[in-house]
Amino acid sequence: MSLRILTFDIEDWFHILDHAETKGESQWSNFESRIKLNVDRILELLERQNQQATFFCLGWVAEHHGDVIRAIVEAGHEVACHSHLHQLVYEQSPSEFAEDLHRSISALEHATGQKIRAYRAPGFSIKPECRWAFEKLVEAGIETDCSIFPASRAHGGFPDFGTARPCLVDTPSGSLKEFPINTANVFGQRFVFSGGGYFRLIPYGWIKRLTAASSYTMTYFHPRDFDPDQPVLPSLGPVRRFKSYVGLRTAQTKLERWMDQQNFIDLATATERVDWSKVDRLPMGTSTR
Question: Which residues contact 181 (CB under 8 A, 6 or more apart)?
Fold first, then answer.
């Protein structure tokens, strides 16, 4: 059975992690919002392609742009949690993480009128040293997590997670259904191709071949990935600027081609299709700091 899961992380173009100019909520009012324009573009694309997706949304977006969240719900898509203030998990204490999580779930449930069941950490920032986050998710009522990037990366990464396929994460408070980012072996290295800057940078032919070679694909896109007219932050260094702005003009065309050739589903449907009695179970005991 193949699982091709389509997801979007709903944040504005200026929600750039680990950058002093865009670090916190007090700075975001300095920038013009493009979230409604860009989410509308995604919703129109999904309607044309007759595709369903899961939208991991910031609670901050629900508080400041509730019409965006309601438009996602009205279009029939699943809404999930992407934190409230888009901060890296490994820079928070367990109590700070729990507070942000509860605030986000509350805002999203108020905006949607639905229970929030799934979560993805900003920047896939659940690392080995903050595995306590899994237990906090269970305690908050989250049932499914998509926060694991099972390879090295700048903002997190869990290279020793043990699998890049759906699995169960066991904590002292209960279990989580986990959908990590998929990886492919390229020249002996684990390689990611299914979202963000990776997708924008890689030629479509490679994406097509790598997808065909795997029965599991977890995508992750952002509204800004399809917005070539967004402002450029002048304070970004050359490497970070390249990662943030490469391939913006061609990303939507690539995604449309991918959708034409693949049958994508949302996370809720994928959760129903997995036989959870046959997946790996990974113990994640409490780890505090």
Answer: 124, 146, 148, 149, 150, 151, 164, 192, 194, 195, 218, 220
CA neighbor of 19 nearest in space, from 107, 123, 164, 158: 123
pLDDT at position 289? 44
CA atoms lying within 13 Å on the CB side of residue 87: 18
If 0-12 CB within 10 Å is exposed, 13-18 middle and 19+ buried, where does residue 26 land?
Answer: exposed
Q: With a threshold of 0.90, does the pTM exceed it? A: yes
Closest listed residue to residue 267, CA positions, set 165, 121, 117, 125: 117
Tokens in use for 88?
């890296």
Q: What is the pLDDT of residue 287?
A: 53
**Looking at residue 184, what is its pLDDT?**
87
Structure tokens belonging to residue 195: 């979202």
Is 189 in contact with 175 (CB distance < 8 Å)? no
- Model pLDDT for residues 76-117, shown as the tens digit of each residue: 999 999 999 999 999 999 999 999 999 999 999 999 999 999
Pick the more confident residue, 32 or 239: 32
Do the Cβ atoms of 211 and 264 come closer than 8 Å?
A: no
What are the tens digits of pLDDT across the range 170-199? 999 999 999 999 998 776 777 789 999 999
